[in-house]
Amino acid sequence: MATPTCLKQNGLDVKMKTKIKIGLALILLSVSFGTVSAQSVKSLELKYRLLQLESENQKNALDSLIKIYEIRINRLNELKSSGQKEKSEYDKLLQDAVALSKKIETLEKNVTKSESILETQKHVLDKKYSFAIDSLKLLETAETDLKKKDVLSLEILTLFEKRILVRPQVYSLSYHPEKLIKINLAAITDSSERKIYADYIKSAISEVDKKLASIGDVSLKLNEIIRLQQKVEDFIEESDYDLNYGLYVNSPNYANLESGVKVNDFTSNRAVIEPQLHSYSVLLNQLSFQGQVNLSSEAGIKIDFQPDNFSLNDYYNLLDEVQLRLKAYKLLLAKKLTPKK
Amino acid sequence: MKKLLLSSAIFLLLSPITYSQIFWKIAADAGIYESIDNEDSESSPEASFDGTVGFRFKDSSGSGLMKLRVNPEILGLTERISSLRIKGDGNFLHKMNNFDLGLTISGNKYSVSKSGAEFNYNYYLISVDFIKSLSRTQTIISRIGYSGIDAKNGRAQSGDNQFISVRASDISIPGINFSYGIYLEKFHLEENIQFLVSDKLLNGTKAGLELSASYLGSVYAKADYRFLLLNTKITQFKSTENYLRLAAGKNLTTNLTAMVLVDAYFQNLKYKQNISNENKIILPGSFENRIFGKLNFALKKDLDFYIKTGYSKLIYNSTSSKIEGWNISVGVEITKN
Question: Is the pTM above the cut of 0.95?
Answer without folding.
Answer: no
